[in-house]
Design a protein that fits this description.
Layout: H1 15-19, H2 22-29, H3 33-60, H4 65-82, E1 90-91, H5 97-128, H6 140-157, H7 159-163, H8 175-184, H9 191-210, H10 216-231, H11 238-242, H12 259-291, H13 297-313, E2 320-321, H14 323-331, H15 338-354, H16 363-377, H17 380-389, H18 391-406, H19 409-431, E3 433-436, H20 459-462, E4 466-472, H21 477-488, E5 496-503, H22 509-525, E6 528-532, H23 536-544, E7 553-555, H24 558-572
Parallel strand pairs: 4-5, 5-6, 6-7
Antiparallel strand pairs: 1-2, 3-4
Length: 573
Amino acid sequence: MRPSRTTAVEAAPSFVELFTPKLVTVLREGYSVANLRSDALAGLTVAIVALPLSMAIAIASGATPAQGLYTAIVGGFLVSALGGSRFQIGGPAGAFIVLVATTAAAHGMDGVILATLMSGVMLVAVGLLRLGTYVKFIPYPVTVGFTAGIAVIIAASQIKSLFGLALAGPEPGPLIEKLPALWKAAATVDPVTVALSATTVAAIAGLKAVRPHWPGMLMAVAIATLATALLDLPVATIGSAFGGIPASLPMPALPQMSLAKVVAVLPSAVSFTLLGAIESLLSAVVADGMTGRRHRSNCELVAQGIANIGSALFGGICVTGTIARTATNVRAGAHGPIAGMLHAVFLLGFVLVAAPLARFIPLASLAAVLIVVAWNMAEKQAFAALLKASWGDAAVLLATFLLTIFRDLTEGIVVGVALGSLLFIQRMSRMTAIETAVPFVPEDRADTANGGRTPYDETVAADPDVVVYRISGVFFFGAAASIGSVLDRIADRHRALVIDLSAVPFLDSTAANTLETLAHKAHRRGVRLVFTGTTHEMRQTLFANGIKPPLARFDRRIEDAVGKLRRRLSARD
């Protein structure tokens, strides 16, 4: 007896279960003073890491360092308070530098804030529509390709600040235009700025090597800031470039909005949404892998959307889950979302208390921080491994990587996913096969108990009247043409056809249409058609396409179908 292919169906989670923030879950479990102590320490650790990063990412994005801090404070608090991950840390991310800078250049900072607000609304909608689970279908070569591409663009965007170059005009955005402009300004290299940048990079790398648990980035920036202030170094600082950082949060306000402006920034908002969903859920998956927990993807997207709306209202830029800060949060011993909320509170304390000191921070040291971030972002080993894996993975990787660098991040992701999907379809179609003149073992007897004959009933293969085809693998649109061409070649000498689908786990409407064409052709020729091994779901699909008695008959086993066909053909003769 062939085992029936049934799948246990779990009860679908309710709306409340899907969208309950992990903060509520943690508090229901019981929250102790010891848990608060762990979260406070983790929150402080993450705040120390996030402080220089938030300002550096904002500056590289064309925003002010204050906007980076507002994003980390408001967005980070909301992501942790409302999110579907216990350990997610939200804030400005390096992945957004290119998109935000491009949007700022085209539509101004008001356009960036409006696009961030619109992206927040879209993310909430994506989460409520429960589309978050589909983000996991993005191929791995695509994520490696666009991450490496972003790393290259971030590094290129910091060359001017690293070397103190004086460009003749505004710095071009596209890499092809940027590099020649920077080369023309090579004669303006400032030795003091170069020395400060190199010292910052060396300090970060050295501290990571000898004291990996120390906040290397913050300490390196602090050393550079102290040297700049005490030695009165002639380098660009936050004070000289931005006038410092306000010692308070601004009042919430809606950005300037009009129908024309909304239409203009809509493509940027869509790009923010796509990248925000990918980046935040990847970060949540990393946290799950480190802790053994499971995040609620759709709840996380809703929280990301609300965080982006909140950030925009306070003049901030895009918010997303940040992998490095989330991993730091886990390693620091965080117990739950309160650690992320406290990280935002600690950053707010810096703004309220120490904002005047920020004016001494040299831009070269923040550029050095981003160079280190870009180096760490580029998954170099994974990139090299995928290049060697197969031609298909290498093609997807390089297409995404090159399009991200030279065209557009969204275009790179879309093309990469499309190529990855085509590659998957091609691979799956190769796994779908068809066997003709199939022998079979009678299922009610052992293989060695066939009356002295071979274990296979070879009369099926030798029968001139009945032919048996067995299809194996996923029968879908990618394999329908090749399978259909085989089935179409039914010899006129056969009077009956058996199609066994017991080895087909899934059959789509294109495959059903192929079988429908075969059924009508067989009917016109007077050939009897029988399907065996079908599941209830397959029969529903076939019935919906018109394949039902008397056009075709269904039997459970090949043996049953062949026996009935032989008796009917003999009776007619």
